[in-house]
């Protein structure tokens, strides 16, 4: 393909960037197909999946706990002057809870999860690849793809919705603390306002899309680590690019999923 001279002169790496983009997309597609094929074929490695869920979930709880509480606290602090200006302060608890449930908690939790988990998976599998541990597993008649990749992807897919529900409750609690400090909010009134505003149909799309986000975090981290090369430099590159790529794909998918959820479960 011959590119215009003004493009190649302005950005000499454009051809390489374009090639890397399509290589990554095709590689992820093949990787995804292989995961879907092997995920339903025994043995299912249940013990390994539980181990990864335990490790990924427990180690992520501290950071999502702090973040979840601050989300609700800051959101109410920023929104309160606006609601008061328009004489709608009575709607503040319900509006903030609805924003947290439908969008803020799922997306922010997924991005934090991607930053912590994708990089860890990429570095771990990348280290195993460059030290030839994966090759040794293949020689030993062990399926490294199923044991290392499929188990981690299933674990991330299952653990992120749990973390999201936890963050939702913490964020709503943070909003209550903010309103208590500023207005002396009554707990019963706050609870009733939240319950009357947030319906079960608001929770379904929010939790459903976190399964997709968890799958994205797992597959991107495993893909970048599994194909890593170039020694320790390749491991570092796999770790950092996994975070960036997973976060970008999460935001892109969220745009599509929000539109779909609004068509199925309108507000």
Q: What's the structural blueprint in terms of helices and strands?
A:
Elements: H1 5-10, H2 14-39, H3 46-85, H4 92-130, H5 133-139, H6 144-183, H7 187-197, H8 200-226, H9 231-264
Helix pairs in contact: 3-4, 3-6, 4-6, 4-7, 4-8, 4-9, 6-8, 8-9
Summarize the structure.
The chain has helices at 5-10, 14-39, 46-85, 92-130, 133-139, 144-183, 187-197, 200-226, 231-264. By secondary structure, it is an all-alpha fold.
In words, what does this structure look like?
The chain is an all-alpha fold and 267 residues long. It has 9 helices and no strands. The model is unreliable at 1-12 (pLDDT under 50).
Query: What is the makeup of the main sheet?
Result: none
- Total number of strands: 0
User: What do the pLDDT scores average to?
Assistant: 85
How much helical structure, as a percent, in the residues?
over 70%
The general outline is elongated
Question: In percent terms, what proportion of residues is strand?
Answer: under 5%
H-E order: HHHHHHHHH
Structural category is mainly alpha
Give the domain tally. Answer: 1
Give unreliable regions as ranges: 1-12
- CA radius of gyration is 22 Å
* Number of helices, counting only DSSP H or I runs of 4 residues or more: 9
User: Gap between N and C termini, in Å?
Assistant: 48 Å
Descriptive tags:
mainly alpha; elongated; single chain; 9 helices; 0% strand; 267 residues; disordered N terminus
């Amino acid at each position: 393909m011959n590119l215009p001279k003004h493009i190649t002169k302005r950005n000499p790496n454009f051809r390489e960037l374009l090639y890397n983009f399509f290589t990554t997309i095709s590689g992820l597609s093949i990787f995804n197909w292989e995961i879907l094929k092997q995920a339903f074929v025994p043995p299912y490695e249940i013990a390994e999946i539980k181990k990864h869920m335990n490790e990924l979930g427990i180690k992520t709880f501290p950071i999502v706990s702090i973040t979840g509480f601050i989300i609700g606290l800051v959101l109410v602090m920023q929104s309160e002057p606006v609601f008061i200006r328009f004489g709608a302060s009575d709607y503040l608890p319900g509006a903030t809870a609805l924003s947290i449930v439908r969008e803020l908690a799922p997306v922010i939790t997924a991005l934090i999860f991607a930053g912590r988990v994708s990089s860890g998976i990429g570095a771990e599998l990348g280290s195993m690849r460059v030290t030839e541990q994966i090759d040794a597993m293949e020689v030993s008649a062990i399926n490294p793809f199923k044991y290392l990749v499929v188990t981690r992807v299933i674990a991330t897919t299952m653990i992120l919705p749990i973390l999201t529900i936890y963050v939702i409750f913490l964020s709503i609690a943070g909003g209550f603390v903010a309103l208590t400090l500023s207005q002396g909010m009554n707990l019963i009134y706050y609870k009733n306002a939240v319950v009357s505003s947030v319906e079960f149909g608001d929770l379904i799309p929010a939790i459903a899309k976190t399964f997709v986000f968890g799958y994205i975090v797992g597959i991107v981290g495993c893909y970048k680590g599994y194909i890593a090369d170039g020694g320790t430099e390749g491991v570092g590159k796999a770790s950092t690019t996994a975070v960036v790529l997973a976060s970008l794909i999460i935001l892109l998918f969220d745009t599509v999923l929000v539109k779909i959820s609004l068509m199925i479960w309108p507000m």
